[in-house]
Amino acid sequence: MNANKLYMLQILQKKLDTIEIRNAELAQLLCRIIPSTCPFERDINLFGHFIIYIPPLCKFNPLYNQLTELRFRAQCYLVQHQDKASKL
Question: Which Pfam families would you find in this protein's record (predicted)?
Fold first, then answer.
C-alpha cells in the first residue's frame, strides 16, 4: 500500500473514531447498517454433509475496529436514552 492510500486510510479511521451519536435515529441507522457479526462466516453443507467452514474475514478489514466501536457506541446511546425515557 503506498503512502498516500495509507494516509487516507488513517484519516478515515480517525474520522470514524470522532463521530458523536447525538440522536436515536442516527444510532438506529448505524446499528442497522453495521452488522453485529461477520456476514462472510458460514458452514458450507452439501446434501446435509459438512464440506468446509469459512472463517470470519472481517478482521482483515482495516476499518473493522472503528466500525465495531461505532456500532457499540450507537448501541450504548440507545440503551442510555431508553433508560431515561422509561424513567419519565
Answer: Mo-nitro_C
